[in-house]
């Protein structure tokens, strides 16, 4: 007899976020990018997906909203969030022996539609 599965302790918001990240990952992989790391965390920031596009390292922020109400997914990326994203990218780059070309992309999922914005921020 198999032991029962442990209950899923993630919040419904976290489950939706995980599903959006998975959807974004699959979308980017279909576009030819390869996964380097998911959910890179450091003190002061996080990166949802670190991908490779040829020789370019891509730091991806995934945002999902059920509707465009209140500005939609893109409007939820505040200046404070951008600073944390940039900080986390700098910490990630410190783990590498050489620094490849980099860019910052956003996957915005709004009402089930995926929007891929490339090179949205410079460091």
UniProtKB/TrEMBL annotation:
GO terms for molecular function: nucleic acid binding. Gene3D superfamilies: 3.40.1350.10. InterPro entries: Restrct_endonuc-II-like, tRNA_endonuc-like_dom_sf, UPF0102_YraN-like. Transmembrane segments: none annotated. Residues 1-19 have a biased composition (Basic and acidic residues). Residues 1-20 are annotated as: Disordered. Pfam families: UPF0102. Belongs to the UPF0102 family. This is UPF0102 protein HV832_01250. It comes from Undibacterium oligocarboniphilum.
